[in-house]
From TrEMBL, chain A:
Na+/H+ antiporter MnhB subunit-related protein domain: residues covered: 120-235
Pfam families recorded: MnhB
Localization of this protein: Cell membrane
InterPro entries linked: CPA3_antiporter_subunitB, MnhB
Regions that span the bilayer: 70-87, 113-134, 140-159, 180-201, 221-242
The protein's name in its UniProt record: Cation:proton antiporter
Similarity field: Belongs to the CPA3 antiporters (TC 2.A.63) subunit B family.
UniProt keyword list: Cell membrane, Membrane, Transmembrane, Transmembrane helix
Organism listed in the record: Geomonas paludis
Domain of life, source organism: Bacteria
Main location: membrane
Automatic annotation (TrEMBL), chain B:
Main location: membrane
Family: Belongs to the CPA3 antiporters (TC 2.A.63) subunit C family.
Tagged with keyword Cell membrane: yes
One GO cellular component, as annotated: plasma membrane
Signal peptide: none
Keyword Membrane: yes
Transmembrane segments: 6-22, 29-51, 71-95
Organism placement in taxonomy: Bacteria, Pseudomonadati, Thermodesulfobacteriota, Desulfuromonadia, Geobacterales
Pfam families: Oxidored_q2
Protein name stated in the entry: Cation:proton antiporter
Membrane topology designation: Multi-pass membrane protein
Keyword tags: Cell membrane, Membrane, Transmembrane, Transmembrane helix
Location of this chain's protein in the cell: Cell membrane
């Protein structure tokens, strides 16, 4: 019995500690719906006069906290680079032609319904992604959300067709150049202000009319840079994981 | 029940932690980590909520309307992006570990060597 107690003692101690910490944190939280943060009202009151912006989340992400978003973008960049580094072909492995995992089904053609759905969904998802990226400063959305949508469009190609179709669309070097362009684009848009003697990411473009597509200065440019990077990054990720399943095989010992 | 959102946050966190502690499969472990992390999204959004507030988009909204806090919403966006990419990185690690050791069970894997 005492052995069992000793077995559970670390758990009990940890659970007690966690419970006490959570309870203390819960008591210190503001009542639900009664939050009065210092910065939220400042953003809401200043974004229209100073930036002609109407979407506060985009204004915070790409303007008030634009420098933090640069770091966030590079967290994504580094994580994807790490993934691709881990998922490259190892010395003990060899790349084979893509193998159908369900070999017993023979050479089944993709069902016409699936093919039709893919043909229908691909352009619309692509359009929706471009729309969400370009209107990120006006409506809910932006580079991160739109970029994921853009990458999703290419998953339809894989789902309704063959692995080879996706491969043709995501030639690795082209997509990785695109990803690097997106990441560098954010840096360069910020650097533009430096020679003129301003701070990093200082707005140089005209602010435009409220609610117009071309407004809020550099915000749409940053959205496009982030959207390009996120779309390319997710495309590279899915291609890397698919390659692991379909192409890379462990080299058989002779 | 003004405390309900916070209770759901704690429930999500504990469910995620329970899954991590008892996990026998690395992919299951990463999923549980994601569940635990999703509690932080809910926590941030619950804190930023203002009674009767609308989305912080001022287009065609009367000037005196209450709006929820945009700063914590932007933080949630960062949280989601980082969470998704880190999950992908962990899954890549899990895949290569499986190739090396032949097991998905984190308890049966031999210790890592530098």
């Amino acid at each position: 019995m005492s052995g069992k107690l000793r077995h559970y003692l670390p758990f009990l101690l940890g659970a007690l500690l966690l419970g006490a910490t959570l309870l203390r944190a819960l008591c210190a939280l503001p009542p639900f719906g009664g939050y009065r943060g210092a910065y939220g009202p400042i953003v809401l009151n200043t974004m229209e006069p100073l930036r002609h912006a109407q979407q506060a989340v985009a204004a915070v992400t790409f303007d008030y906290r634009g420098f933090d978003t640069l770091a966030e973008e590079f967290i994504l960049f580094a994580a994807v680079a790490g993934c691709l580094l881990l998922l490259r072909r190892q010395e003990s492995e060899a790349a084979h032609d893509p193998v159908d995992q369900a070999g017993d089904r023979g050479d089944l053609e993709p069902a016409p319904a699936m093919l039709g759905l893919g043909v229908l969904m691909f352009p619309f998802t692509l359009l929706l992604g471009i729309y969400v990226v370009l209107h990120g400063h006006l409506s809910p959305g932006g580079g991160f959300q739109g970029g994921v949508l853009l990458a999703t469009a290419f998953y339809y190609v894989y789902l309704s067709g063959e692995y080879g179709d996706l491969l043709g669309m995501s030639r690795d070097h082209a997509v990785s150049h695109l990803e690097a362009t997106g990441a560098a684009g954010y840096v360069l848009v910020g650097v533009l202000a430096l020679p003129a003697g301003y701070n990093y990411l200082h707005n140089l473009l005209p602010l435009g009319d409220k609610g117009e597509l071309l407004s809020t200065g550099m915000l749409p440019l940053l959205n496009i840079a982030v959207g390009t990077e996120v779309a390319a990054a997710f495309l590279l990720l899915i291609a890397a994981f698919l390659r692991q399943v379909l192409v890379i095989r462990r080299e058989k010992k002779p | 029940m003004t405390i309900l959102p916070y209770l759901v946050v704690i429930e999500l966190l504990l469910v995620g932690l329970y899954g991590i502690a008892g996990s026998r499969n690395t992919i299951h472990l990463v999923s549980c980590l994601f569940v635990a992390q999703s509690s932080t999204y809910l926590l941030l959004l619950s804190i930023g909520y203002v009674q009767g507030g609308t989305a912080p988009i001022t287009d065609e909204i009367p000037g005196n309307a209450r709006m929820v806090d945009p700063v914590v919403q932007a933080l949630t966006l960062t949280d989601i992006v980082v969470g998704a990419t880190v999950s992908a990185l962990l899954l890549a690690f899990a895949l290569q570990r499986y190739k090396l050791t032949g097991t998905m069970d984190p308890r049966r894997e031999p210790p890592q060597r530098g």
